[in-house]
Amino acid sequence: MERALDLGSRLGPDDATDASLSELARGAAGSEILRIAAEIRALKATGAPVCNLTVGDFDPGLFPIPETLLAGTRAALGAGHTNYPPSDGVLALREAVARFYERELRLEYPVESVLIAGGARPLIYGAYKTILDPGDVALYPVPSWNNHYYTHLAQARGVPIPVRAEANFFPTPDDLRPHVGEARLLLINSPLNPTGTVISPEALAAIAGLVVEENERRRRDGRKALFLVYDQVYWQLTVEGARHVTPVGLVPEVAPWTVMLDAASKSFAATGMRVGWGVMAPAVRARMANILGHVGAWAPKAEQVAVAALLDDEPALRSYRERMRAMVRERLGLLAEGFAGLRREGFPIETLAPQGAIYFSVRLALPGRTNDQTRRLLLDGAGLAVVPFQAFGLTEDSGWFRLSVGAVSCDEIRALFPRLRRVLAEALAREGAG
Fold this sequence. Notes:
Elements: H1 14-19, H2 23-27, H3 32-45, E1 51-52, H4 67-78, H5 91-105, E2 114-117, H6 120-131, E3 137-142, H7 147-153, E4 157-162, H8 173-176, E5 183-189, H9 201-221, E6 227-231, H10 247-250, E7 258-263, E8 276-279, H11 282-295, H12 301-312, H13 314-344, E9 349-351, E10 359-364, H14 371-382, E11 384-385, E12 387-388, E13 400-404, H15 410-433
Parallel strand pairs: 1-11, 3-4, 3-5, 5-6, 6-7
Antiparallel strand pairs: 2-8, 7-8, 9-10, 10-13, 12-13
Helix pairs in contact: 4-12, 5-12, 6-11, 13-15, 14-15
C-alpha cells in the first residue's frame, strides 16, 4: 500500500498561519468553562475525588430524558425521519410549540411566529445577527451567559451592566435607562444562568415598559427599534415559591419587539438532542430563518417529531416535570444546607436561595485570593469544581461562583462538605498566621 503523504512539516508555523486569519476569528475567545473542564479531567485522571459542579449539563444516568421523548425519537427514526427537515422547523413541532405556550404560558402566538433551531445557541446567535449591524450596541447584564462572546461574533459593541446580589442579579430600570437610547438589543435571561435567580414580575414589567416607551420615541424620530431578547430556557425548572413571567405576558405592547427563546435541552435533560425554538414577530422570524438556514442550524428531524409529540402529551409532560424538579431541588437543597452549616461555623460564605434552573450561587471571599486562585484551591484541595462569575462576563473578583447540579449525585454532594470544611479551615488558618 502506498504510504500516506505526511503533511505535518508542510503546514507552516502556527503563528504565521494565524496572522493571516480574519480579525473576527483571531479575536474570538474560547469558552472559559471548557478551559476549566480540561483541568477537571486532568485531576480526575489522577484518581482524586472530584465533585464536578461546573457543567451546565446532565448525567444521563442521573437525569434520563422523558421516556416519551426517547420512544418517540426511536419511532421517528424507524419511520424514516432521517432526511433534512424544513430549515425553519417541522410544521408539527412549530404547531406544538404554539399550543404549548397557549396552554402553559397563556400566550397565543401564530405558527408563523415560531422558529425551530438546533438548540437555543443558534437562536441567540441568530437574534444578534438578525437585529444588529456592525457597531450597534447590545445591552446585557453581567454576569450572564455568553453575551460577551456573541457580541464579538456579531461585531457589535457590548455595553455590560454589572448587577448586584441585592437586586437578585438582574438589572433595574434605573440601571438600563442611561443606555437604552443607544442600544439596539437588550438581553435578559430568567431563570438566570449563572445565578439560578428569577426576575420579579415588577422588574420585568418595568423593563418591558421601558422598551415600549423607547420605541415610541424612536417611531416618532424615524429610528430603528430597540429589541428585547428574553431567554427563558430554564423556565420549567422554576422552584416552588418563585414565579416565572414573560415580558409579553406582562406588557403585551412589547410583543413586536420581543424575541423569546426556549429549548428542550434543560427542562427535559436533552442537551444533546439539539431542539430549540424561538417565538417572535413573523417578520423577524422570516429574516432569522433565512440567516440560520444558511448556517445549517436546524434540529435533527426525528428529534423534532418526538419533541412535538411530547409537548402535546400533557400528562407525560407534567409527570416528568415534577420528577425533574424534585431531583434538581434535592441537590440544590443539599448545597444550601451544606453551605449554611459552614456559614454558621464562621466561614466567610454568602449564598442566594435557589429559585430556578440547575444553579446555586455561592460567594467565598477568601482574603488575599482572586476568584481563580480560590477556584484552584477548591479544586486541588477539596475536589470541588466550580465556575467563577468571570466566565460570565464579570471582571471584578467578587468571590461569586456558579455551582451546577445536573451531573452529580446527592452522595457526591454530601461527601464534598467534610473536604471543603478542612480546606477552608486550613486556608483561613494560614491567612491568620501570615
